[in-house]
Amino acid sequence: MRINLPTALTLGRVAIIPVVLGLFYVDWQHARQASAVLFVIAAFTDWLDGWLARRWNQTSNFGAFLDPVADKLLVAVALVMLLRDHSTGLMGVLVAVIIGREITISALREWLAEMGERKRVAVGMLGKIKTAFQMTAISLMLWKLPVGPIPVYELGYGLLFGAAALTLWSMAVYMKAAWPLMRDGLQRPA
Predict the structure, then answer these.
(1) Which domains does the chain possess?
(2) CA 102 to CA 22: how far, in whole Å?
């Protein structure tokens, strides 16, 4: 298999996860901010690899599989790191909502793909807005230090609430789109 640039960017996003994790926990000055910068770079490659693959007509089955896996791994690892850092019940709920939605929608997409109906839950604008909120919130929370008078961590924490709300909303939209097929499955005898 030949690796094109979009797929290489996706593989790079997976490879950067342990570096983000390590920098987050190492006791060096500004290591946490370096972790945030790497997270931002990885988040940017999420957009870039898809754009390049479509623009250059370099989409592949492997890339289509790996891209969402890389995104979900990056987000889940970062959220678990942040939960350990700020272990409150409310933060636990936000992390559970976001990771739970990702697992649910991934399973839903796999099930629909088996039925030839994956297009029912294609990524829409709401999902893209949710991702933007989520990536921005996580980036700011990873950075943590205020920038001048701007309380970066608190701003990120507030955006995480918005991301969780958008997460639930987008999940409801996807579930509604898939509901006719799920309902049909409930009405048929096993």
Answers:
(1) 5-187 (1.20.120.1760)
(2) 24
